[in-house]
Specification:
141 residues; 5-stranded antiparallel β-sheet; 18% helix
Amino acid sequence: MTAYQQRHLNLDSDALSKVRRVVNHAKKKANWFNPSVPGWINRIPGHDRKHQIKLNDFRCVFSYTVDRANHKVVRHLSVSVPSEHFPHPVAVKFIASLFGFSGSDGELTEDFPSDWHVHVKNDGPIDDHCIVVGQDTGIRI
């Protein structure tokens, strides 16, 4: 059983405006993250403030990421919190819906939609203790 710390997620018009700004930036083809391009390590979205937003204690990094192997573009979101704990899956699902992820429909369960690719990451230089979600955008390359 994973322990979660109770956290508040207050979404006022300013926060929603910031989310829209990050999404609009990430959607532009020139800003897609493509790990198959040389020098990709210098363009990791987690290092680019235009791909980041803090919603209270939740640190979110959002990108449109090129999946060259499958010839598609996916929405990619990592959500972390400032502790050794992980963000609650219900909070991650709700936050993901703000970034355009579909299929959750406000369900207050810890289960993720079947077309979401979910990874729990507990080691790394940037997003320790985060939940990473991806979903096909329908864009083919």
